[in-house]
Amino acid sequence: MNIRGRNKVSPEFNMSSMTDIVFLLLIFFMITSTLVTTSALDILLPKAGGKTENKKSIAVSITKDLIFYIDNKMVIEDELEKDLTTLLLNKEEPTIVLRAEEGVPIEKAVKIMDIAYRNKFKVILAVRPK
């Protein structure tokens, strides 16, 4: 007497649908990663052990060539205070992130800190992690 079930489960597994999903995910992440762009200047920050906070604040960058930028917009050094006070006028906690490149004279960074002190702005010094 042969008592075997008629329904046999085949031990084969079809991987074609799994590979389709993996390739679709791969294409999705490749496309979305190329769309991500940073809106920062390419400057080399000094090294330190601290960490820069990333809040909604205004970034002031100083390059080696002593060119001043406020959030990627080049500004003249003499108009810096006027532009900063205009941008931070109605902010609840006005904060400036100072990004001075390595080799910038300390007087230029102190000028930004002095503007912040006179107008009661908070200053955060951006650094590279060690």
Describe this structure in words.
This protein has a domain at 47-129: Nucleotidyltransferase, domain 5 (2-Layer Sandwich). The chain has helices at residues 16-35, 80-87, 106-118, and strands at 47-48, 58-62, 68-70, 73-75, 95-100, 122-125, 128-129. The strands form two sheets. The chain has a five-stranded mixed sheet with strand order 4-3-2-5-6, with helices on one face. A two-stranded parallel ribbon has the order 1-7. It is α/β, with parallel strands linked by helices. It is built from three helices and seven strands; from the N terminus they run αββββαβαββ. The protein is 32% helix and 19% strand.
How confident is the prediction overall: mean pLDDT? 81
Q: C-alpha Rg, in Å?
A: 28 Å
Say how many strands there are.
7
The CATH architecture of the domain at 47-129: 2-Layer Sandwich
- Characterize the main sheet: 5 strands, mixed
Helix fraction bin: 25-40%
Intertermini distance = 78 Å
Query: Would you tell me which CATH topology of the domain at 47-129 applies?
Result: Nucleotidyltransferase, domain 5
SS content category: alpha/beta
Which CATH top level class of the domain at 47-129 fits? Alpha Beta
